[in-house]
Amino acid sequence: MQEFHSRQLLHERGICCVIPVYNNAGTIADVVKRTLRQCDDVIVVNDGSTDGTAEILRGLDGITLVDYNDNAGKGTALKRGFRQALDMGFAYAITLDADGQHYPEDIPTLLKANMASPGALIVGSRKLDGVVRSKGSSFANKFSNFWFCVQTLHRIPDTQTGYRLYPLHKLHGLNIMTSRYEAELELLVFASWHGVKIVPIEVNVYYPAPEERVSHFRPGPDFARISVLNTCLCFMAIIYGLPLGVARIAYTLFMTLYSLMVYLSGAICVIYPFALIYTTYCKIKGRSGDKLNALFHWLGKNITKQLGWLGKGATIDNPHRTDIEKPCIFICNHQSHLDLMINLALKRKLVFLTNDWVWKSPFFGYAIRHAHYYPVSMGMEELTPRLRKLVEKGYSITVFPEGTRSKDCSIGRFHKGAFHLAEQLNLDIIPLVEYGLGKMLPKKALYMRRWALHLEIGRRFTPEEQKKISPELRERAKWFRKLIRNRYQEICNKFDKDA
User: Fold this and answer.
1) Per-residue pLDDT at 40 exceeds 70
2) Contact (Cβ atoms closer than 8 angstroms) between residue 275 and residue 366
3) Distance, CA of 432 to CA of 456 (rounded, Å)
4) Residue of 343, 320, 355, 349 whose CA lies nearest to 434
5) What is the mean predicted confidence (pLDDT) over 279-308?
């Protein structure tokens, strides 16, 4: 069951496997069959094999075969495999060697890393303790690791591993990629220069006895090519990699400072003075402060637009055509301080139950306290009558049942307060699912990242339906958490392809 779940997730997230092969007739059938047990989408690139490998591959079902007669090298085989994967609509490709040294059973480990770090290049660092290797192979790995650090100022433990998960839309340098196995180092270097996150994870490795190994490594010519490549990459690091890194840092700073400026100018120059003047006017005239709440809606819409412009777009989707104007309780997963903004963009007459930090904020706390927002710490006995009056005036209430944010955007345990409130006020519940805000501004992060933002509106659950789910509030909270968590994963599978 777990194996099937992983295969399904791989397909939903647009992940395929690419296996380049040259003269591995003794191992290729076993490698392909084991890979097919882990992944439904397998592309095998036959790099001009002459030992019967081609005939074996033609007898295997369930693979996409890229076949050509002349041996062009591993770099060329990878390039053709990646282009085939892109033509087939895949977003990621897991590469593994055909000689049997990589365990296809580790594919779920790479999948897990992809889910935790979408858009990253996952590098399967081989567990080499106790493994008997040739001196040439060991030296080549240390040599490659050293020059990668020099060229990118980053360290990873195994630059020579062929077991990787590539984000296909972030591959740079393909057109000038070398044709042999050193191309894998080149892909790593270009990815680092372009700001692609590189995540090393441990994977198992199998080396047969030296007399049984099939190796295409030629120490003299191959070391010569590696040396020439590293010389070129060191030169390019100065004229290409360094300027790219500076530009990327400059853009990140601009994005962060611009967003902070919009936020502070909105809070200090618009919200606070308007709130002060308007609440004073309302007290004198004996009127309500509803327009202050409308100001928050306007601000939320505009800041969400700015975030979408700085990131990769911001969308609000209502697939069930849910009527959101009728009073209800919105429950939403909590990802970032920016959650309020995209929620505020939903509708007018919307109030939040906040934590004490927001309630006492020196920038917008005064406005919050006069816009019908209340702290959760006030307690349900005091909150319920106040919120009932707002509901009678057409207001809806947004609650983040988790109560806090997670570092990795995973959805934590739901508290039962929101469901108790819905029961007391006899209100429908509408689930909201947020994506991207926790990636754009992770918990405790000091700078913002470019990311797509998305908010999906679920269907209404009437009080009668809520009771049918479970008469117990705790079980009801678990049910809605599972609903939002499953839908969040489906949205991640869709949007992470473009991460």
Assistant:
1) yes
2) yes
3) 6
4) 343
5) 72
pLDDT of res. 340: 82
Distance CA 460, CA 456 (A): 13
Q: Which amino acid does the sequence have at 45?
A: V
Q: How deeply is 379 buried, as exposed, middle or buried, from its count of CB atoms within 10 A (0-12, 13-18, 19+)? A: exposed
Lookup result for tokens 């994967």: 85
Going by C-alpha positions, the residue among 252, 257, 366, 350 that lies closest to residue 300 is 350
Largest CA distance in the chain: 94
Closest CA to 53 of 21, 30, 18: 21
Nearest to 186 by CA among 223, 230, 221, 218: 230
- pLDDT of residue 419 exceeding 70, the answer is yes
Whole-number Å distance between alpha carbons of 14 and 118: 12
The CA-based angle 22-24-30, given to 5 degrees, is 130
Q: What is the mean pLDDT of residues 249-274?
A: 75
| Cα(215)–Cα(98) distance, integer angstroms | 11
Q: What residue type is assigned to position 466 of the chain? A: Q
Residues in the chain, total: 499
Residue 395 phi, psi dihedral angles, 5° rounding: -85, 145
User: Which residues, 6 or more positions from 211, have their beta carbon under 8 angstroms from its beta carbon?
Assistant: none
pLDDT-derived band at 222, boundaries 50, 70, 90: low
Alpha-carbon torsion angle 73, 79, 84, 90, nearest 10: 130
Residue 35 and residue 28: Cα distance in Å, rounded? Answer: 10
Strands 15-21 and 92-95: parallel
CA dihedral 185, 188, 192, 198 (to 10 degrees): -130
Beta-bridged to residue 92, according to DSSP, are 15, 167
In angstroms, the Cα distances linking 184 to 79, 134, 210 are 10, 20, 24
Tell me the two tokens of residue 324. Answer: 């959101």
Asked if residue 477 has pLDDT above 90, the reply is yes
Q: How far apart are CA 41 and CA 90, in angstroms?
A: 9
Q: What is the pTM of this model?
A: 0.87
